[in-house]
Amino acid sequence: MNKARLLLIILLTVYVDAFAMTSSEMIVQRFGNNMEQWCKTKNIDYRQAALKDCHYNSETKKDCHHNSETKKDCMVMDYLMDVEAQKSGLSNNHYVIQDYLHVFQNALRSGNTSFRMYNIEEIPYGSIKIENYSSRKASLAKTLTYVSCDIDVSGALNYKLKNLFIISDEGKIWEIESRKERVNQRTGKKRFLVNIDKLVEEDETIGFSYNYGQHFPVGGSFNYSLERIPLMLSVDFGINLDGDKYVLDKVEMTDIMHFDRTKKVRDPKFFLTVTPQLYFRYFAIGCGVGFLYMDGTKYDISNDIDISSSSSAGFASSSEHVSVEAGEEANCPLLKPMIRPVAKGFVPLNDEMYISVSVGYDLIFGYKEKNGLNFGLGLQWKL
Fold it and tell me: CA geometry: angle at 240 spanning 340 and 237, to 5°?
């Protein structure tokens, strides 16, 4: 009777503990149980069961070109993985769940290995501090849950680990990393540093596009998107080939017989702008600021006409004196301010490269004859 009562108490305790666990804690617990059973029995089915709790899809590489929402495989950045990778001569600092399980697979081949997970506890978001903060990381971090635990590995592998599991909004383990705690000396509050750099598509990219404008048929843009803020910078240029001239002719009259004329003939050559844009991975919008360079020639012309008359012995006579002085100044360039509002779209070719398309408008202040639409086509790729 006492044994039955004791067994009932134990079962109720296990049930209450399981019921009290959050869904994220249960995911981590299940992963730990499967790892423990795999190491104990060497039954590959437990390995596959552990893998199912992580972001991993054997079809990822095939589907990623068609489904932009496909998440990356679960990243592993804990102490065990760092040490074992160095032993294996790996140094890419980019390890996924398959690499992690492969370490245990090799250990099981060489001898017995045990795995035990305990002290599983979900950490509230208010106790999380994002390393290398960016607005995009902050937005992602709010959708995740964080579970800390301790792990003892012994046998062919010997480690005592304090780890942090990051769970995605799809209920899958997305990252395993070493737990890093910081305590505020003034308040005594504990915070956990979390690195989700490899989970976020920061999209640091560079690219070039060929631009065609109504009045600038040869042009281009060099593009660079910043890593930690949604900003793209472009340097743009365009070359004018139509040979049209911009003429400014000014006449100053002293009287009807005397005037000075200043004539300036300018030839628009090229423009140069810098364009900051809000960048959202597949779309960017912004406005460039710069100038149109115009080569020019200046002519100064002065006209003086003098007419005099006289009479003698019944005869009248007159004389006319015309003086024309012309001067030429060959170098008379001008910079006209301009803006270039533009919108760009980025169509993925694969995980690393995009086709860029753009449409914009060249707006030159004081020279509306050269205002017009422009279009661009190019490539953008990740660094």
Answer: 45
